[in-house]
């Protein structure tokens, strides 16, 4: 079946009105073949402003709905996602080029965060705090924050939105979504699934969840509006450098989930078979287009000659291909620009003394599609392109002899998202997780850098932006905190023993 026909059938099954994906003037392209599969309608600045006004009105209603009742909407959303999993997962694969298993996995992540958020809707707890004044009580309350603008990247086209949306709606906040201009169809489909849950819920205000299709200029309307209380922006560090200061300048709140340059350290005591499999998935999975993709590997000199030849063999034999038609483990790059960035990084690595294994283009389908064999690059030291994130399957491998020096090198890049150590030595493990160990938001032992579960807070430090989403107490980012002190005595003692008698 031609990809366009397949796509249109999926969109129809998922409940998207045909007018939303035909004749709109903004092309949607599948990286699987590079062909146009739909054309969508970008929102104008006026439409974006109107969406913000609708969301602001919805906030006044939604914030007063009891949180467990808000959780009921997310429970229904989880049910609808379960029913739509196969079709939505396939659409993710078509639009983002992921394998069918990874496409379905992304929808599973949406379901998981819904389950988490339903429980959370009964656990938006504040503290009760001891006061220094007799006859007083002090406590914290958490209130809905306001309109949340979600700006998302192409590589997790739906999961990132759901992480934000499930929490925001339970926390009492309306959501406006500006998906990547490279993945508008999965956004329209996800909104259709949510719309079914909203209809079943019945009492949600209009404008509670909206989508604005378009590029950076549409996202900028959310970023600049004082009526958008929180901007949760996922994408490149380049984007975060623009968005972060603009939101800060108007004293808005931002959750920034930006680029990663994730590394692993393989120690002499490591289970090398396990390390090889974890490195292979972490570095080559999703064609190296995960924010948590493993991009740098430090291998101890005692095990280098055992592990690295095995890895090079795995790189040579991994199947690259159409993610829909074969059991290919590595699908396409998102577009020609990504392929050219990959080749530029490999050229720079060669110039810096690197030995490149793989990385060449693989001819699959029309030449509008960009498939590449993943590249493993043995580097003499951490220089040049190794210091930056190139959003493609390139793994830079370096030899180390001293663990402390390896940790120093591990931390000596701008990004701070995810990290791993492979060791069975307790001291190395604890050191890696300690205050002078990995400086990343995610630090793992004997698993790769990618594939986080929704139960933990997700995000990273430094140029990754500092934001946290998903599990643990990330919900606090979507609410405002009030400290309340109540005097039930007949006196008015002042804090710190201050006297002010009139
Ligand atoms: P991108 O920065 O090109 O675009 C991301 C989103 O930001 C898009 O929706 C885009 O339209 C919007 N945008 C760009 N400039 C903007 C501006 N000035 N104002 C408002 N909106 C703007 O990123 P991409 O190529 O889609 O995604 C890949 C990048 O995202 C990688 O760097 C990857 O590491 C990162 N990423 C990070 C995480 C994380 O959780 N840390 C998750 C996924 C992807």
From TrEMBL:
Primary enzyme class: oxidoreductase
Ranges of residues in domain Aldehyde dehydrogenase: 26-481
InterPro entries, alphabetized: Ald_DH/histidinol_DH (IPR016161), Ald_DH_C (IPR016163), Ald_DH_CS_GLU (IPR029510), Ald_DH_N (IPR016162), Aldehyde_DH_dom (IPR015590), ALDH7A1-like (IPR044638)
Keyword terms, alphabetized: NAD, Oxidoreductase
Active site: 257
EC number: 1.2.1.3
Subunit structure: Homotetramer.
Listed PANTHER family: ALPHA-AMINOADIPIC SEMIALDEHYDE DEHYDROGENASE
Protein family according to the UniProt entry: Belongs to the aldehyde dehydrogenase family.
Name of the molecule in the record: aldehyde dehydrogenase (NAD(+))
Species name: Rhodovulum visakhapatnamense
Origin organism lineage: Bacteria, Pseudomonadati, Pseudomonadota, Alphaproteobacteria, Rhodobacterales
């Amino acid at each position: 079946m031609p990809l366009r026909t397949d796509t249109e059938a999926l969109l129809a099954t998922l409940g998207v009105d045909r007018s939303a994906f035909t004749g709109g003037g903004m092309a949607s392209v599948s990286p699987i073949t590079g062909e146009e599969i739909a054309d969508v309608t970008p929102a104008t600045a006026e439409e974006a402003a109107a969406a913000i006004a609708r969301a602001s009105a919805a906030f006044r209603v939604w914030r007063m709905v009891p949180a467990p009742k808000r959780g009921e909407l997310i429970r229904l959303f989880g049910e609808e996602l379960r029913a739509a999993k196969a079709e939505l997962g396939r659409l993710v694969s078509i639009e983002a080029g992921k394998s069918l298993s990874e496409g379905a996995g992304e929808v599973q992540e949406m379901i998981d965060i819904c389950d988490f958020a339903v429980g959370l809707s009964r656990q938006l707890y504040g503290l009760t705090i001891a006061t220094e004044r007799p006859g007083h009580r002090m406590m914290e309350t958490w209130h809905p924050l306001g309109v949340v603008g979600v700006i998302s990247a192409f590589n997790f086209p739906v999961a990132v939105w759901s992480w934000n949306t499930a929490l925001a709606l339970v926390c009492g906040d309306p959501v406006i979504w500006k998906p990547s201009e490279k993945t508008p169809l999965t956004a329209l489909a996800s909104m259709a699934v949510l719309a079914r849950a909203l209809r079943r819920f019945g009492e949600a205000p209009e404008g509670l969840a909206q989508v604005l299709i378009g590029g950076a200029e549409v996202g900028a309307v959310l970023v600049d509006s004082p009526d958008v209380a929180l901007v949760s922006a996922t994408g490149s560090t380049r984007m975060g450098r623009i968005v972060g200061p603009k939101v800060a300048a108007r004293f808005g709140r931002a959750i920034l989930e930006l680029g990663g340059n994730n590394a692993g350290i393989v120690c002499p005591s490591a289970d090398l078979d396990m390390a090889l499999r974890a490195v292979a998935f972490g570095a080559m999975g999703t064609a190296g287009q995960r924010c948590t993709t493993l991009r740098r590997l430090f291998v101890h000199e005692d095990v280098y000659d055992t592990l690295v030849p095995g890895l090079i063999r795995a790189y040579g034999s991994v199947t690259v291909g159409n993610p829909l038609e074969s059991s290919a483990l590595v699908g396409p790059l998102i577009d020609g620009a990504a392929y050219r960035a990959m080749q530029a990084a490999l050229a720079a690595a060669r110039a810096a003394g690197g030995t490149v294994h793989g990385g060449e283009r693989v001819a699959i389908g029309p030449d509008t599609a960009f498939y590449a064999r993943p590249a493993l690059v043995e580097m003499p030291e951490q220089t040049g392109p190794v210091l930056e994130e190139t959003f493609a399957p390139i793994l830079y491998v370096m030899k180390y002899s001293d663990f402390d020096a390896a940790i120093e090198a591990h931390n000596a890049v701008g990004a701070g998202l995810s990290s791993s150590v492979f060791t069975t030595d307790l001291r190395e493990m604890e050191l890696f997780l300690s205050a002078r160990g990995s400086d990343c938001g995610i630090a793992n032992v004997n698993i790769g850098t990618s594939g986080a579960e929704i139960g933990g807070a997700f995000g990273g430090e430094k140029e990754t932006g500092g934001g946290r989403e998903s599990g643990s107490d990330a919900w606090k980012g979507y609410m405002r905190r009030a400290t309340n002190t109540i005097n039930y005595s007949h006196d008015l003692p002042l804090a710190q023993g201050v006297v002010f008698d009139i």
